[in-house]
TrEMBL record:
InterPro entries: Bact_response_regulator, CheY-like_superfamily, HalX_domain, Sig_transdc_resp-reg_receiver. SMART domains: REC (SM00448). Keywords: Coiled coil, Phosphoprotein. This is HalX domain-containing protein.
Length: 207
């Protein structure tokens, strides 16, 4: 049995699934699924990371994600999707939201390495990073006045502030290099993700 982490790639576009698999297969044990039903048949307790398309014809990525969380699989999940993030992502239990296309092998490897690193953190730090990912994804595409008027986004900010207070001692151990390893180069909102996790106001840098 391989000691490499296991990555499940789920996308109904076969060419994308196969390409991403080729990019990762030298460093990871890779499984592929071409629809949501196949994903749920393929996942088990050995899967460490799931790269999940959001819009699929049989079962949506959201339905697959809900089932993964309901079955309590201990894996990190990134939505890798062409669907632009909206406030509905605040209800989804993913760890990261990555907008397609993923442009090159190194970018995908960085995404997976980031998720692999997150698995070493405790649940509160994982929640902090997941919420920071949602916050940054929204701030990348929403105006500040729209964000401020949304109750769910305000609750997200409140929860993040609470987590930072609860994790003040742990956060001291998450130094700049840790955060940079988490977020650098993953997508256009990488710098915002790092600012958000550190407690900065990512919206200040938004055009």
């Amino acid at each position: 049995m391989s000691d490499e982490p296991t990555v499940l790639i789920v996308d109904d576009e076969h060419a994308i699934t196969d390409l991403h698999a080729r990019w990762l297969e030298d460093s990871y044990e890779v499984r592929k699924a071409y629809n949501g039903t196949e994903a749920l048949e393929t996942i088990d307790e050995d899967v460490d990371i799931v790269l999940l398309d959001r819009r699929m014809p049989d079962r949506s990525g959201q339905e697959v994600l809900d089932e993964i969380r309901e079955q309590a699989f201990d894996c990190r999940v990134a939505m890798v999707t062409a669907v632009e993030p909206d406030f509905d992502i605040l209800e989804l239990g993913f760890d990261a939201y990555i907008c397609k296309p993923v442009s090159d092998p190194e970018q995908l490897r960085e995404i997976v390495a980031s998720l692999e690193t997150r698995s070493t953190y405790d649940s509160q730090v994982q929640e902090l990073l997941a919420l920071s990912s949602k916050k940054a994804a929204l701030e990348e595409r929403k105006e500040s006045d729209e964000l401020s008027k949304n109750e769910d986004y305000t609750e997200l900010e409140t929860r993040l502030a609470s987590l930072r207070n609860e994790l003040s001692s742990t956060a001291m151990e998450l130094d700049d290099d840790d955060l940079r390893a988490e977020f650098h180069g993953r997508n256009d909102s990488g710098s915002k993700l790092m600012k958000s996790a550190e407690g900065g106001d990512a919206s200040e840098s938004r055009d």
